[in-house]
Inverse folding.
């Protein structure tokens, strides 16, 4: 497995990698969710590139960029064990050198939910993903459903800017108690870690109501809100039942695919999770 | 020479074109300036693709999108004679289908001059060029110096978004009397056509002053303004002596490469032109 920092070396190394090439973009501190993406890429592609880059432009000024967890040696050892061909670990200086001034923005699909709570977040995501795509030139790129809106934003980016890339969205990987894998779970103390299962409990309760025939969007949101309310450590930021195609909130009757999603502070840690009902991502 | 409309056929055809591939993006109604780009691409590349697309997103609401001149049969015949391999002629519907919502913006370098006079223009340019680059995947792309700020914006776009593409800027091609070739010259009536030489006359006068040792930026701008003032049909929009690297106006002494540039209405027709002194684009 090659580990490369500079863009020039990456381009050089890229030449000898067989296609189709699968790219798994990550911010490192890898968990089983990331590894499931790597395995999907390994199954489906002739070569696999993983990028590790904690992208500063997708963090807000009050967010956790500085304390975002990092452990490169561990990441590299995990990726080597998965048979990854190349890991690209650019520096912020390489990605955003002095004079950097170009931004990619996706509009409507990036506006609600995470986009509303984290202004500029998806501009940072779309920009860095466009850069990764141009640098690595993959045929396929792998993203987790846990960041469902991000996956939709990137699908739109790929379609709109004519990237010749297939976006593959893989299922959310969860702990035994349902908590979605996230690098940010490391922030949770033991008490918060227990409380954090409330996200999945709320989502599965709404999913169960949907499966039992409940189609009223307000009711589905209320099912989630009631469960969140019962957890004293949880401070919900949003609770959404949105159309899967454009992420606009369902009003009245849910008559098509829906993304049930939520963002919840558990103590100081902001967690997100989602489930899709009536369709798939 | 293949002429293709759909993105899918383009991608298919692209596979069998040898590299390096040169792309010449145009809005059609080709003149000798365009053909010089095609010839440069033909000399330097194993295959040449020309795109013809009057990009609606780079025109302002009050601009000349609807009456922009078009003559596809003539364009195709000119390109076939130059040995072009493939011409891509997408429709607006192909480039901007319903639901389109992704934009590429370049900031500082796109802000002054044309960017200040034509809000949104360079967002349209950067976006369509990113789309053309992803669709055609050239190794080199050819642009004319006549649109000098556009060339600088695209160089910045390519560097910032990691496009593996060399941007080649070719010299402005001029009529015998110095008027820069432009598809918009067709708008000029005979009297305006004569008056239109004032742009080049103003630029060459400032260039001569520079070459004679004049380094005061205000003076160089005044040389151009005086010549424009003597032409009754000319209404100058801007007259600039800017740093070539960032397009900020030189203040006081010109101590490095400068872009002398201007935008002038001749009757209802807006023309631009430029010369570089003390360096090159």
């Amino acid at each position: 497995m090659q580990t490369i920092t500079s863009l020039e070396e990456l381009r050089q190394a890229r030449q000898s990698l067989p296609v189709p090439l699968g790219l798994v973009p990550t911010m490192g501190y890898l968990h089983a969710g990331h590894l499931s993406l790597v395995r999907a890429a390994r199954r489906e592609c002739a070569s696999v590139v993983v990028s590790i880059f904690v992208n500063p432009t997708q963090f807000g000024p009050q967010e956790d960029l500085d304390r975002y967890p990092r452990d490169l040696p561990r990441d590299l050892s995990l990726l080597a064990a998965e048979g990854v061909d190349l890991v690209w670990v650019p520096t912020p200086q390489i990605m955003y050198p002095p004079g950097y001034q170009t931004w990619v923005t996706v509009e409507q699909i990036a506006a609600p939910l995470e986009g509303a709570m984290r202004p500029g977040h998806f501009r940072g995501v779309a920009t860095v993903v466009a850069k990764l795509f141009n640098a690595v030139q993959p045929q396929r790129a792998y993203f987790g459903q846990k960041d469902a809106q991000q996956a939709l934003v990137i699908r739109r980016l790929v379609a709109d800017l004519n990237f010749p890339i297939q976006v593959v969205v893989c299922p959310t990987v969860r702990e035994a108690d349902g908590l979605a894998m996230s690098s940010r779970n490391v922030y949770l103390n033991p008490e918060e870690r227990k409380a954090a299962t409330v996200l999945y409990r709320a989502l599965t309760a709404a999913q169960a109501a949907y499966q039992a025939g409940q189609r009223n969007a307000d009711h589905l949101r209320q099912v989630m809100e009631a469960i969140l309310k019962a957890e004293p450590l949880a401070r919900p930021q949003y609770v959404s039942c949105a159309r899967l195609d454009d992420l606009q909130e369902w009003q009245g009757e849910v008559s098509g695919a829906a993304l049930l999603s939520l963002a919840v502070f558990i103590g100081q840690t902001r967690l997100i999770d989602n489930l899709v009902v009536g369709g798939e991502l």
